[in-house]
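Researcher: Re-running this chain for the archive, since the previous output was lost when a drive failed. Same request as before.
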Amino acid sequence: MQRFQDKAIVITGGSSGIGLAAAQRIMEEGGSVLITGSNRDRLESAAAALPGVHVLQNDAARPEAAEALAQEAARLFGQVDGLFLNAGVGAGAPLGHISANLYRNLMDLNIGGPVFGTQAMAPLMRDGGSILITASVAKDKGLPASALYAATKGAVRSLARGFAQELAPRRIRVNTLSPGPIATDFFNRLGLPPEHLGAIEQQMAGNNPLGRLGTAQEAAAVALFLLSDEASYVTGSDYFVDGGEAQI
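Model: Regenerated structure tokens:
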């Protein structure tokens, strides 16, 4: 299957996890990919793992970074067929511990990134293209210490609806992907001891209807469907990849 033959796709937050898995699959299906990330070491590792991928160190939390991304995408591709706005942060804190810095970091990256990323990249999108934004099942569940994070992902869902309406005259589809418990390196970045990480993952798997964590590849498979022409009549929608966690 070569769904992305001769297509150009941009993925923010593409140096690890779901973004990296999506980039690999898109390239295997004939596409050209530009990935971004704020961590140079992870970007270099991604470039080594995916020969031929284009990389750009870019902090999606900064509005001016969106313009830099658009300039690089235009230089590389001219026009873009798909945009996967996957950059985000999952930090949280309970009431009484929500700092101004945490608030700004979550809002600037999780909401500002999609806002300014879509705004900067939309003029480069081919008519009939696809924009996908990563949300989360957290927006649909009340989780301890996650109210602020969940609010940013709820905002992403609303943004996608509005953007889908605005871009519909150009047949550009805008959807959200809502992962549940996915086994990525996200938890490793929290700095917790390995035994604590293991306990958290075991608890999450035990609470999931399918009894396990999902994989980045499983989430990427749904992302690729939404980015491809196979989803040509899908817009304004929210696709869950969560083992049923937010549904049953």
